[in-house]
Design a protein that fits this description.
This protein is of the alpha/beta class and 325 residues long. The chain contains eleven helices and seven strands. Strands 3-2-4-1-5-6-7 form a seven-stranded mixed β-sheet, with helices on both faces. Helix 6 runs antiparallel to helix 7, helix 6 runs antiparallel to helix 10 and helix 8 packs antiparallel against helix 9. The relative contact order is 0.10.
């Protein structure tokens, strides 16, 4: 069984609709879904039955309809549990699916990211109009391998089944990998603004920044020394801004664990928690201001611009790949 998570396409702004569930896809959102399903067709197993499940939100149902039309699928099934992020209900529904099936699941963030982590042991951030394909390896528990990712805003997609050793293809994938991480970071900061009390987003931003810094170190030979240092400093500063709130979250988790295990030993249970909670609120406000003012995006945009310009230094980078093998 193959499972494909799909985040709905771009939709009307919430301020334009009082009911979130009734927001429709924008014309651009529809075009992006047409684009990614056309690309996704290349990765589908020809002999597999197509199933399309969708959130009951209108923007998701419209996304599912475009997919259905392009694949000539017979039916679309709408489920509230996809809209509500109920993973247990999703798993129960999986139990009714035949092995030779491809299941499209059209849903929302942050649920798709969370479900990806449960299935693949890695959190994947979904931009609007992103498709991620998994090949299920087991049913008890449900675990799968990531086989492809398609972003609506990228010209190429990652395909783990491609075993080509072509250096130029490797360069494209390496470049795409960094662009993907930048897109994930950008998406996560938006999610942080929507759900600043979800401790996972701040943590994942720090993880992705570390990954990006490691990749930058790898391509250091093709960068001007000054550019390399500036980019590393920018990423280091971003990670530093999210470090303190992560430390507070860890302390809160540890303190809650101590309270649960030592109910009779701790007399003043609320004093430390109040200090930590107040400190977290202060740091949360600073991060919201930092992201909202566009300071983080400005630094990420500079790095993105340099990565896009790699093609001008392709020969140097290809030599780097050869030396690493």
């Amino acid at each position: 069984m193959d499972v494909i998570f799909v985040r709905h396409g771009r939709a009307e702004d919430l301020k334009d609709k009082k009911d979130d569930a009734k927001r429709q896809l924008t014309p651009k959102g529809k075009k992006e879904i047409f684009k990614i399903i056309s690309e996704a067709k290349k990765n589908l197993k020809a002999d597999y039955k197509i199933l399309i499940w969708t959130s009951s939100a209108l923007r998701a149902e419209q996304t599912a309809q475009i997919i259905s039309d392009e694949l000539n699928a017979d039916t679309i099934s709408s489920f509230d549990f996809i809209k509500d992020g109920d993973y247990d209900s999703l798993i129960k529904q999986f139990d009714n699916v035949d092995e030779n099936s491809t299941v499209f699941i059209v849903g929302h963030e942050p649920y798709l990211s969370r479900w990806s982590k449960l299935i693949y042991n890695a959190r994947i951030s979904f931009n609007k109009g992103t498709m991620v394909g998994f090949e299920m390896q087991s049913r008890n528990p449900y675990k799968g391998e990531l086989i492809w990712i398609i972003h609506s805003n990228l010209p190429h997609h990652f395909d783990s089944t491609d075993k080509s050793n072509n250096d130029e293809l490797t360069l494209k994938k390496f470049k795409q990998m960094m662009v993907d991480i930048l897109n994930e970071i950008t998406d996560m900061q938006k999610l942080y603004l929507e759900m600043p009390d979800d401790i996972e987003f701040a943590h994942q931003i720090r993880v992705k920044i570390r990954q990006l810094r490691s990749l930058l170190s790898f391509i250091k030979p093709i960068l001007y020394e000054q550019d390399y240092k500036q980019n590393q400093e920018k990423l280091k500063e971003i990670a530093k801004r999210f470090s303190y709130i992560r430390e507070i979250d860890v302390l809160i988790e540890h303190w809650q664990s101590i309270l649960e295990k030592n109910l009779d030993l701790v007399t003043d249970k609320s004093a430390l928690m109040k200090v930590l909670s107040d400190e977290r609120e202060k740091e949360k406000s600073l991060l919201i201001e930092y992201i909202s003012q566009g300071l983080m995006n400005a630094d990420l945009s500079c790095i993105f611009t340099q990565i896009i310009g790699w093609d001008d230094k392709k020969d140097i980078l290809l030599k780097r790949f050869v030396l690493k093998r």
